[in-house]
Amino acid sequence: PHFIIDVPLKEDALCFNINEDPGVVLNLIRDPSTGITVNGQLVGDKQSSNDAGPHNTYIGRLGILNTQLNMKLEITPEKITLQNGTKQMSFTWLDEVTLRHPGLTLKIIRKKSLEVSMGDGATFVVVLHQVWRKHATHGDFLGFYTIDSHKLSEYTHGLLGQFFHPIDFSILEVHPGSDPKKPDATMIVKNNQLTVTRGWQKDYTEDSKHGTNVPCWFIHNNGEGLIDGAYTDYVVSSLF
Amino acid sequence: IRNIKKRNAADANSDGIDIYSMKVDCKVTSRFSHNVIMSRAVNRANVSKEAFFDVELPKTAFITNFTMTIDGVTYSGTIKEKEAAQQQYQQAVAKGQTAGLVKASGRKTEKFSVSVNIAAASKVTFELTYEELLKRRFGKYELFLKVNPKQLVNHFEIDANIFEPQGISYLEAEGSFITNDLLPLIHKSFSGKKGHVSFKPTIDQQRSCQNCPTTQLNGDFLITYDVNRESPGDLQIVNGYFVHFFAPKNISRLSKNIIFIIDVSISMSGRKLQQTKDALLKILEDIKEDDYLNFVLFGDEVHKWKDTLIKATPENLDEARRYVQNIGIAGWTNLHGGLLTGIEMLNEAHKNGSLPERSASLIIMLTDGRPTKGERNTQIIISDVKNAIQGKYPLYNLGFGYDLDYASLERMAADNNGLARRIYEDSDSALQLQGFYDEVANPLLTEVELKYPENAISDLTQNHFKHYYDGSELVVAGRITDNDLNSIIAEVKAHGAEDNMTFTEQADVEGTAKGFEDQQYIFGDYIERLWAYLTIQQLLEKRNAAKGDEKANLTAQALELSLKYKFVTPLTSMIVTKPEDNEDKAALADKPLEAEASASPVVPSYSSPATSHMYTSVDGD
After folding, report:
1. Is A176 in contact with A78 (CB distance < 8 Å)?
2. C-beta separation of B145 from B186 below 8 A
3. B9 at the A interface (CB within 8 A)?
4. Fewer CB atoms inside 10 A, N or C side of chain A?
């Protein structure tokens, strides 16, 4: 999956890919203060069509946990399951639902996206990417977007969560890259010196079919140097 | 070494696929290794399951065969020209039935992976074969095997047989995962021309702890050996092909004149520069007093430590150490300026006779990036460097990290009798740098020319080498065209430390045949395959540096040989057809390239983002 990090201070964005095997669960957000955790499990293509390069993997399952509200939300391209204490509710992406619970609002836009807000915490948007059922290689997957991330605490971490705090970077030495359309540069970020590439990634919140190009500085090697530690530090054993 | 893997190693047997046998069978004859990895598995579940076969093999190896046998039916890989294979592959892609099989993995390896669905109670046997010419470094040959079965295996075995006509002088085997308990299970023996290594742990000995369901077999298994060197070389003839191994010993070392050209652009700051300094300081400890050296640093500007190469006296080395410790970062990457300054300095020193008459000159460049200052067009840089060096000294390019134009570094080094090497960004980068220096630290001969009777041979591999370094070996192979030829004489001419040297070596067909009598280790046409392997490798290297018709010719030659000898090289692919749900599906095994050719430079530019609103997010295209 590709990660897009909005850096409002710079009016710019950073992006990186995480290439891991299907089945691996990554911690995206962990806020010990609000008790909110978001994990995503990777899925691959139906067939691993290109072993010469990195495997294409996507977020295939999302788990949103709020320990304070004792609530779990599991989202897959097939269904949405909300567990509130001992109660469980299931929805499909064919449902058009607005659910208002104490501390939780869940809104499903049929076959397109869902929006979930938890208490005073941030709002998350999950985009459904549906692929033609008979597509040879690709399967359905999900996109995950955070809105109002400042509502999470300063202790928030995770592959996305660590970037909810202000982050600064400098770009030096912009020079031609291997792709004529994508120059390379040296980036100084978190006291690291990285070679980055100017590129684009898609934001699907507006147009869930075609997406909108977001220009960004691409950090190679699974975000190495940009993220705290290594991406493998964010691998967790299960969705919840 | 290989394994059929479960999706999750932790619950090794939970998915019902049981690997009951794995064998790695290596046969080495005269440095040429032929390796067969066989894995047998059974589906003990009552529904069909996917069995995985993952093998890591050395990057320098060529896959030659792969078969998959399911319930007695064998599906074999077919090696085809890449384009033809791709066409077949594309058709299969359109049907959603394909998978690439090989990808670059670690520093030394590439990974071959395949999976197949097998019915309940069915058995599958995977068998992969690859071949490799073992290269002598630091006085030894190394057979590298990656071991990672991911589950306990009833019959696990590594079995290596080595046959060296010169006689084996020592043999060692070790594994990164070998504990004190496993150590006695490595059996190694050698006598005369034969060496044998085996490792066969029982299922209990494989356990990572007592009663654990997980295996401790995970890591590198290395077999190292060397041969006796009673004469400077060894010439062998079998079935109309010959191979000549040349590695003389007891020769005085030449003094060397070495210029280190170091990238100090901003991207080198921090750990990279520190590791470079650490390595240079260590190298300075090892430099001999009769050597000459200098440093050229390039960032925005080019800085020379001294105007000329200076002798490595203790005082000068002290000063060099202080200089290295104070190296700082200096902006952009003026690679062209740095290289030409170093080359001109060496040219000037040779011209004015300030260097020892009998000495070896070499240039080592270390860079982590692409040129961003001065001349940035890599074609012009390559051409300027070649014109400046004019074949006089080898250029070794060390590429630090991944974000560089490694293909151009390779081409530049190949053009100038040197080679490119990657320095992987890791905690041991300084050791990697030192390791490379150690390889070229002791030149013994320069301008080494290996000659054979011209009218009796053809298709000779590279036979002129700029330098011969202690601990290495020069290998030349060729085809004998004279059917009546019973013997062959090789003459080697080279410049040594004291005078010019000539070595001769003679071999006769009967003599070689006698040497190989009763050797079960020999896999038939090994010299012919060794010749083909070496020829393909050299054609591919030349091809990297060639253009136009020359490139097309080299490609055609390398392709023809790859197909004839069934090697998966960068020009060929292996198509594996496998049964899935009663339909045949294709998969493709390619040789990953170390570096793709780079695009021509463009003026740097980038657009500002659309900032209407953005979210920190994770998604896929």
Report:
1. no
2. no
3. no
4. C
- Number of other CB atoms surrounding residue B572 within 10 Å: 26
Neighboring chain A residues of B268 at a CB cutoff of 8 Å: 193
Which amino acid, B253?
A: R
What does DSSP say about strands B500-508 and B487-495: parallel, antiparallel, or unpaired?
antiparallel
Beta-sheet pairing, B73-81 with B17-29: unpaired
Q: Quick: pLDDT tens for B460-492.
A: 999 999 999 999 999 999 998 877 777 889 999
DSSP at B64 = E
DSSP sequence for A90-147:
EEETT--EEEEETTEEEEEETTTEEEEEETTS-EEEEEEE---TT-SS---EEEEEEE
Report yes or no: B132 and B35 within 8 Å, Cβ to Cβ.
Answer: yes
* Confidence tier at A173 by pLDDT (50, 70, 90): confident
Contact list in A for residue B615 (CB cut-off 8 A) is 4, 6, 125, 145-147, 203, 205
B185/B187 Cα distance (integer angstroms): 6
Count of CB contacts below 8 A, A vs B? 187
Residue B227's pLDDT is what? 96
CB contact under 8 A, A175 and B616: no
Whether the predicted pLDDT of A205 surpasses 60: yes
- Shortest CA distance to A26 belongs to which of A59, A67, A56? A59
What pLDDT shows up at residue B31? 95
Give pLDDT, residue A56: 81
Most confident of A67-71, B174-178, B602-606: B174-178
pLDDT digits (tens, 9 = 90+) for A102-158: 778 888 888 889 999 887 777 899 999 987 766 667 788 999 999 877 788 889 999
B371 contacts in A (CB within 8 Å)? 175
d(CA B272, CA B427): 10
| CA B72 distance to own-chain centroid | 36
For residue A2, CA distances in Å to A18, A99, A179, A202 come to 7, 30, 19, 9
Contact across the interface for B96 and A50, Cβ inside 8 Å: no
Strand, helix or coil for residue B13: coil
